Amino acid sequence: MIYADNAATTKMSPAAIHTMLSVLEQNYGNPSSLYRFGQHAKEILENARQQIASLINAEPREITFTSGGSEADNQAILSAAELGKKNGKKHIISSAFEHHAVLHTLQKLEKDGFEVTLLDVHENGLILPEEVEKAIREDTCLVTVMYANNEIGTIQPIAEIGAICRQHKVLFHTDAVQAVGHLPVDVRAQNIDMLSASAHKFHGPKGVGFLYVKKGIHLTNLIEGGAQERGKRAGTENVPGIAAMATALKESVDSIDKNTAYLTHQRDRLISGLKKIPHSALNGDENHRLPSNVNFCFEGIEGEALLLLLDQKGIMASSGSACTSGALDPSHVLLAIGRVHDVAHGSLRLSIGEDITDNDVDEIIRSVKEVVEYLRGFSPIWRDLVSGKKQFIL
Ligand SMILES: *Cc1c(COP(=O)(O)O)cnc(C)c1O
User: Fold this and answer.
1) Do 132 and 170 meet the contact criterion of CB atoms below 8 Å apart?
2) Among residues 116, 109, 106, which one has the least CA distance to residue 139?
3) Which CATH architecture has domain 57-227?
4) Whose CA is nearest to atom 5 of ligand 1?
5) How far apart are CA 339 and CA 330, in angstroms?
6) How open is the CA angle 49-50-56, to the nearest 5 degrees?
7) Dist. CA 238–CA 227, nearest whole Å
8) Packing angle between helix 358-377 and helix 303-312, nearest 10 degrees?
9) How far is the CA of 4 from the centre of ligand 1 (A)?
């Protein structure tokens, strides 16, 4: 079996599992309780907060624990909108290829009278900082741009965008779910006001994440109740998950250099192997991309069929599109970079992990070639392309 869908979720690291189990077994107290079991749990919680903060160059009180990346995105954007509303500023800048946790939150705000400008992400999947600057208006209250895209892996010029926002006194949030633990993150040096992260994307458990919010920025709480997380996120804390998240993040950050070198090597082998398939194209910039991400379009096939046949060969990947629901909409990310519907349907995202071997990469290349050829063999679209009835796009 080859698991190549690490952008969807990652395998928990043994150290993170160990931390989680030991907290579950030995520290079941409620951190809000005053007796010793409660205080032990509270200590674990605050140690995790301190460790996570230091790994992104933040202060412990700037970290709020959440149920994951989606919640952190919602809370960041709704908080900035609330602040904007108070000052009569109801314009938000974002990009067309954000995660749905961002896009759908923005759609909700549009119904509440906010105006949203979605920046162009260009053919290479990159946003230009000068276009962010051009889009800023007197009434802009927030710029929210993802650090690295979850489908095509492109890495945005976050520090430059942050500097522009700071200069114009506009809040800057980044959905860094694909970046934290994989790329260096320094919220101070990169001028980030708010940042979302999720543990299960860096070998931690599912259902836990965090939101960094620069001190002085008022957070709106999504969940009313007790005074946990300084009154900004009610509910008894997920202590085992939070402790395991801290372990996983420490481990991931400590091995960023080593992992980047290895993954980049394997990613580039995959890209050069898959490029040899006729009428294929890499999606997203070849250099400014996550070391783990490979995303291709193959003309004349359906991504879903490709995935099912790869699964039969023991390879687990994704199409990066929203086809799973049965809806025939191709990925909004591929459309945002200008792929036409027909081509966008034939996409494949491989997101590799550190445990991938040379043989795995060879096997993926061989299998994708075989399956693409096989599917083209009985594709009516492919027949039309080959006979000249239709024009090749790729
Ligand atoms: C996975 C992901 C999310 C959602 O995180 P959850 O913890 O699953 O809610 C948000 N943004 C990006 C870019 C992601 O990859």
Assistant:
1) no
2) 116
3) 3-Layer(aba) Sandwich (3.40)
4) 69
5) 10
6) 90
7) 15
8) 130
9) 17
Q: Could you tell me which residues are beta bridge partners of residue 294?
A: 350
Q: Note the pLDDT tens digit of each residue in 105-158.
A: 999 999 999 999 999 999 999 999 999 999 999 999 999 999 999 999 999 999
Give 242-278 pLDDT, tens digit per residue: 999 999 999 999 999 999 999 999 999 999 999 999 9
150 lines ligand 1 (CB under 6 A): yes
Report whether pLDDT(78) > 90: yes
256-387: CATH number: 3.90.1150.10
* pLDDT tens-place string over residues 181-213: 999 999 999 999 999 999 999 999 999 999 999
Share of the chain above pLDDT 70, in %: 98
Q: Ligand 1 atom closest to Cα of 98?
A: 13
Distance of CA 311 to the CA centre of its chain: 23
323 is catalytic: yes
Phi/psi of residue 246, nearest 5 degrees: -65, -45
Span 223-237, pLDDT tens digits: 999 999 999 999 999
Question: What own/partner pairs with CB < 8 Å and gap ≥ 24 does 114-117 have?
Answer: 114/81, 114/84, 114/90, 115/90, 115/91, 116/91, 116/92, 117/91, 117/92, 117/93
- The pick from 99, 100, 202 for probing ligand 1's pocket by mutation, whose C-beta has the most ligand atoms within 8 angstroms, reads 99
Q: 267 and 352 in contact (C-beta within 8 Å)?
A: yes
Contact yes or no for 306/321 (Cβ under 8 A): no
Q: List the domain boundaries for the chain.
A: 57-227, 256-387
Task: Point out the catalytic residue in the list 141, 165, 297, 323.
Answer: 323
CA of 209 to the centre of ligand 1 (A): 9
